[in-house]
Design goal:
264 residues; alpha/beta; Nitrilase/N-carbamoyl-D-aminoacid amidohydrolase; 6-stranded mixed β-sheet; 27% helix; globular; hydrolase activity; C-N_Hydrolase_sf; C-N_Hydrolase
C-alpha cells in the first residue's frame, strides 16, 4: 500500500479558500497512491481559536466539496484531515472526513478528546462520542485526531473494532514535538498497528507547528518522517505485516480486562 501524508503550512497570509484550492491540487498530484492523509484543521489552523466560528462550515460545505472532487480526480482514498463543522443545532465540532476514490463520503469522525483544558477547543467545540473505522482494500483504518493520541484506551477500542492502520491528523505544536513522535510510536507498538500521523508546518496563531509527520510500523519502527517545513511524505508499507506481527508476538491476546478496583 502506498500512502502520502500532505504536511501543508497553515499561515495567516493565505485565505481558507486559497488553501483549499492548493490542497486540492496537492491531493490530485498523489494519483497512484492508495491513501492520502491531510492534517487537522488545515483550513483555519488548530490554534486559531477565533477563526473556528468564523470559518465553520456544514458537513457538506466547501471543504467537503473540494476534497470529494480531489479524491475522485486522483482516484485515492482520502482522509481529508478535519474541519470546524457547524452542526444543524449550531454547535461546533472538530470533524474529520474520509472519502472513497469515487469521491463519496466513507466516514466522518467528530474528535472525542478536545485540547485546551478550560479554554480554546475544549470550550468552543463539542466532543464526539463515536469510534470510527473505515474498511479499505487490504486494511481497516481507525480514525483519531491530534490530542486523541494521548489516550491509549481510544486506540485499543479502535483495534477491538478491527483497526489495523491508525490515521492521526494533527496540528501539533513544536514545543511538544518529542511527545508527538514518542506517542505515535507507542500507539503503534502497543496496538501492533501501522500509525500514519500527519501534522502541519508553519505557524497557527503565533504557535509554531511541529511538522515531522511520521509513519510507524507495528514494531514501532519509523518507516518515514518529514522535516519541519511543507512536505509530502510518501511511503510504501505492507498491511499484511499487522497480522504477521500479531501472530508472531501475540501480546494482544494477553490483555486482562475488567480488573477490580482495590477496596479502601
Amino acid at each position: 500500500m502506498r500512502a502520502s501524508l500532505i504536511q501543508i503550512a497553515v499561515n495567516e497570509g493565505e485565505s481558507a479558500e486559497g488553501r483549499r484550492r492548493r490542497m486540492a491540487a496537492l491531493v490530485r498530484e498523489q494519483a497512484g497512491a492508495d491513501l492520502v492523509v491531510l492534517p487537522e484543521l488545515w483550513t483555519t489552523g488548530a490554534f486559531a481559536f477565533e477563526e473556528f466560528g468564523a470559518q465553520a462550515e456544514p458537513l457538506e460545505g466547501p471543504t467537503y466539496e473540494a476534497m470529494a472532487k480531489a479524491a475522485s480526480d486522483a482516484g485515492v482514498w482520502l482522509h481529508a484531515g478535519s474541519v470546524p463543522e457547524r452542526a444543524a443545532d449550531g454547535r461546533l465540532y472538530n470533524t474529520s472526513l474520509v472519502f472513497s476514490p469515487s469521491g463519496d463520503l466513507a466516514a466522518a469522525y467528530r474528535k472525542i478528546h478536545r485540547f485546551g483544558f478550560d479554554k480554546g477547543e475544549a470550550v468552543l467545540m463539542g466532543a464526539g462520542r463515536e469510534l470510527v473505522t473505515v474498511r479499505l482494500p487490504g486494511t481497516t483504518l481507525g480514525v483519531a485526531t491530534c490530542y486523541d493520541l494521548r489516550f491509549p484506551e481510544l486506540f485499543r477500542s479502535l483495534v477491538d473494532a478491527g483497526a489495523e492502520t491508525l490515521a492521526v491528523p494533527a496540528g501539533w505544536p513544536e514545543r511538544r514535538r518529542s511527545h508527538w513522535t514518542l506517542l505515535a510510536r507507542a500507539r503503534a507498538v502497543e496496538n501492533q498497528a501501522f500509525v500514519l500521523a500527519c501534522g502541519t508546518a508553519g505557524t497557527h496563531a503565533g504557535v509554531p507547528q511541529a511538522g515531522h509527520s511520521i509513519v510507524v510500523d507495528p514494531w514501532g519502527e519509523v518507516l518515514a518522517e518529514a522535516g519541519a517545513d511543507e512536505e509530502v511524505l510518501t511511503v510504501e508499507f505492507d498491511p499484511a505485516q499487522v497480522a504477521r506481527t500479531r501472530e508472531q508476538f501475540p501480546a494482544l491476546k494477553d490483555r486482562v480486562l475488567g480488573m477490580e478496583t482495590p477496596r479502601r
